[in-house]
Amino acid sequence: MATDEFLAIKDVSTAFKIHGSYYKAVSDVSLDIHNDEILAIVGESGCGKSTLATTIMGLHDPAETKIDGEIDFEGQNLLSLTEDQLNDVRGAKIGMIFQDPLSALNPLKRIGEQIQESLDYHTKMTEAEKKARVLELVNQVGIPNPERVIRQFPHELSGGMRQRVVIAIAIACKPDLMIADEPTTALDVTIQAQILDLLKDIQRENHAGIILITHDLGVVAETADQVAVMYAGQVVEQGSAQQIFDNPKHPYTRSLLRSMPQRDKENDDLYVIQGSVPSLQKMPVDGCKFAPRVPWIPEAAHEEHPSMHEVEPGHQVRCTCYQSFEFQDAKVGEVEA
Amino acid sequence: MWKTILRRVLIIIPEVFVLSILVFLLAKAMPGDPFTGSINPHTSLAHIHHLMKINGLYDPWYQQYWNWLVHLFHGDLGMSYEYQEPVTRIVGERAINTLWLAVFATVLTYAIGLPVGLYAGRHQNSRGDHAIRMYTYVTYAIPFFVILVMGLWIFGYLLGWFPTTGSIGTNVGSGFPAVISRLQHIILPGILQALFGLVGIVQYLRSEVIDATHSDYVRTARSKGVPVKDVFKHHVFRNSLLPITATAGYSITGLLGGSIYTETVFSYPGMGLLFVSAINYRDYTVITALVLMYGVLSMLGTLLSDIIMAAVDPRIRIE
């Protein structure tokens, strides 16, 4: 596995303007992505995963957002690029796959046109070459009968087929990095597996890096090399997939893993994390942001300004609270285990 | 698709039949009779009864309706009680006047409304957008006839730029001078009607553009690296114009039906004014003819809108 780090996110914060003040949806996130690698960003709704993705893509309205930090990508800082320079990166070097294939495609344009649009802006191909490339792409993402499909409109295709079209758009110019924002959430389970396999195949062919954003730990276990767990706009734990799944440290990661439904357990009750992610305006500014959801841990166990601690090479955890964390029903848990 | 259109046209026939019965009965149900308006102290009651009788107004309603229907199929809509002229001739003259005014006003409405609506949506919350929004709210809040009367007073009476009544000057003859005179008569009412009519289009289009701007497919286009300018051109504008195109079909009702407000305030002898005076004088033959025509026009307008919609939106196919 090559380990050239080609996307380095350094202390990136994204704040939205709400009634005149800025609130951070992503705060001081630092992550590295290497090519030939899938980095999964995991977390529940509202934790800032998608905001981070759209920040990398530069899709936020500068009038409504404040973005700090640095995103180094192939030798340039994406955050300092002009709109025109960004347009040369978007679609060409970074491709994005969206969550809902139903709404991600323009209902009034033919599939072929929508895939070709990327090529129109980033290549100097002739019309005939573009047509050929579109057919090749449609074929590559496993859509049967490409000749017919390129003349169809989105509503004529099934959800799975539409997601394949969205993927074809993202990979049209063979980007070095693909950002997949919950690519399988809107699809049913059998299609999910196919789409994930497709993403892995494409990655292998193009030697691309993938940021896979998801709340589905099953998807992470199947596909990811590296995992970053996000909570309330921060990365709370990161490491290799194996480290995260075999040796989770942060209370949030452990709670997430525990709340996964498992077949082999007798007890059908799902573990539920108390409370919910606070809204942007109610987010605690300082201290461990997960503290309110594990109130049984003594306050002293948390750091005042939680920082990342290395627990083993390549495996980092935020805050010291992991050291004294135990589930409330720890004894019951042990008996089950 | 042609089959469906043919079927839709055929369905209109029974619809018109039901409509004609309703229209006929409603006109009959109005209080008063066609002759109350023309009585004078010397008119004897017997004379009125006589008039009612020879005009068949004492016959049972189905018989009156049947007579009317038979004549209708011969292209005869009866005589106007008020004007003592065939209804077809009166309607014909008025329809031409209305067409002049309505075509001018409609073209102007869309010619101004579409670009202004697109601009307001594209530059949401800009100064221009605020000004446009202020204009639409104020205009919408003022009753239309007040706008008309103010316009008439300022530009017709005080400034004297435009004629204040009629559809064509007297003694202008025919040919080019007649066209000029007609244009002079439609400019002011046409502009006022457009300035009011475009409000709906602007507000609707503005919100359509804003919705489309925040849609997922626009985000997809931007993540392809399409510059914002082109995103608007290729994705936002086209998709936002769609619902407006569809409603354009309905405007044919107005093209021949005329505007009651505009024509009344400007004493413009078109269909709208004819309709109002026909109701005032209980001119049954004219009322039934006009309402029937409005009904047929709305049905055709709906059909036209459906066809336009199917032509421009691939999601809608008439099977």
TrEMBL record, chain A:
Keyword Nucleus recorded: no
Gene3D superfamilies cross-referenced by the UniProt entry: P-loop containing nucleotide triphosphate hydrolases (3.40.50.300)
Keywords: ATP-binding, Cell membrane, Membrane, Nucleotide-binding, Transport
Gene Ontology molecular function: any one: ATP hydrolysis activity
Keyword Iron: no
Similarity comment: family membership: Belongs to the ABC transporter superfamily.
UniProt-recorded name of the protein: ABC-type dipeptide oligopeptide nickel transport system, ATPase component
Organism (species): Furfurilactobacillus siliginis
From TrEMBL, chain B:
Compartment(s) of residence: Cell membrane
One BP term from GO: transmembrane transport
Pfam family for this entry, one: BPD_transp_1_N
SUPFAM superfamilies the UniProt entry points to: MetI-like
Alphabetically ordered keywords of this record: Cell membrane, Membrane, Transmembrane, Transmembrane helix, Transport
Transmembrane segments: 9-27, 99-120, 140-163, 183-205, 241-261, 284-312
Domain ABC transmembrane type-1: 95-305
Membrane protein topology class: Multi-pass membrane protein
Gene3D superfamilies: MetI-like
GO CC terms, sorted: plasma membrane
Primary localization class, coarse: membrane
Family: Belongs to the binding-protein-dependent transport system permease family.
Protein name: ABC-type dipeptide oligopeptide nickel transport system, permease component
Organism: Furfurilactobacillus siliginis
Classification of source organism: Bacteria, Bacillati, Bacillota, Bacilli, Lactobacillales
Gene transcribed to yield this protein: oppB
